[in-house]
Amino acid sequence: MASMRRPGRARGIPSAPLEALPDVRDGLSRAERVVLVVLQQAQVERGGRAVPTAELYGRVLEHLDLGEEELVRILGRLGAGPRR
Asked: For the chain, which ranges sit under pLDDT 70?
């Protein structure tokens, strides 16, 4: 029977640490990339207006298991954090 492993994934190595590594193309981790894509989609739906963090968090949770603090850290690194 054929292996059900995902191609390119070494046996015994958990996916989470690999997904946390920045991509060599743009330096973004998978979580950062998901946050950016979801943020952009929400901004388009809102006619270019700002997206509340709580709304963004709910949308991101549909794609990632991410804590609130981690989302805030990602937004800060990406320069999309709350305005002061």
From this structure: 1-24, 81-84
Give the structural domain span for 37: 28-78
- pTM, two decimal places: 0.70
User: Rounded to an integer, what distance in angstroms lies between the CA atom of residue 76 and that of residue 19?
Assistant: 19
Domain-located, residue 32: yes
Tokens 């950062």 belong to which residue?
32
State the Cα–Cα distance between residues 40 and 50, nearest whole angstrom. 10
Contacts of residue 71, Cβ cutoff 8 Å, sequence gap at least 6: 35, 53, 56, 57, 60
Count how many domains the chain has.
1
